[in-house]
Specification:
By secondary structure, the protein is an alpha+beta fold. It has helices at about 5-20, 25-45, 50-70, 90, 135-150, 215-230; strands at about 105-110, 115-120, 155-165, 175-185, 190-200, 200-215. A six-stranded antiparallel beta sheet has the order 1-2-4-5-6-3, covered by helices on one side.
Length: about 230
Amino acid sequence: MPAPDNPSIHERLKRNRQLRAAASPRDHAKRRFAAAVREILDSLEASGASARFFDSETPRFVALAEELRAQPAEALEAKIEGYTGMENFHERSPIVGLSNPLAPPAEIELVPEEKAARGRVEFGKAFEGGPGLVHGGFLAALLDEALGMVTIYSGTSGMTGEYTIRYHAPTRIKVPLHFEARFDHREGRKLHVSADLWDGETRTVSAKGLFIAVDAAKFEGFHEARRERIGER
């Protein structure tokens, strides 16, 4: 297994960034479509539109969903290095996925020289818990995603084993937030990571995680089980 500072890991991160940026016209179109759905989700709950409006529009959305299901994506080529089934994570993730309208989406950049990741996010009204505040479960999911990313500095990838989160202050919706995750150390298969989220100069959330190193064969098993269960990619 390569050491955390092995140049091959840094090169892999560089190639992955380049490949994510080189999206196809269809990828860009799908991202624009997802952004439009995101706007609907942000406006829906607070809308005062009439029952007639919603009743008239619902069949159109049902038909659109059926049309999308009738056009499944082809199997992905392994263009981005990583474990089987994770090649398009930057598109499908519910946190960073550019083609997933459930995602805010967060922007996360790995910082190899610091064994860290830094990111930005703004949560819309669809993520509101308390009045004007982000629901704490989404904040936990955000930092879990960032913590998972920094496990790469261990020389492998990891999955959440144990996760402790502390809420220091309320986190507001509709404002720019920034966060950082760090790879701390490794003990056998145990990967120790930590993270913080800020609203301006105020730290609102901190987290510590114990992730478990997972090899490629495990991810291949997950991928095959997914295909058998829902018949996609």
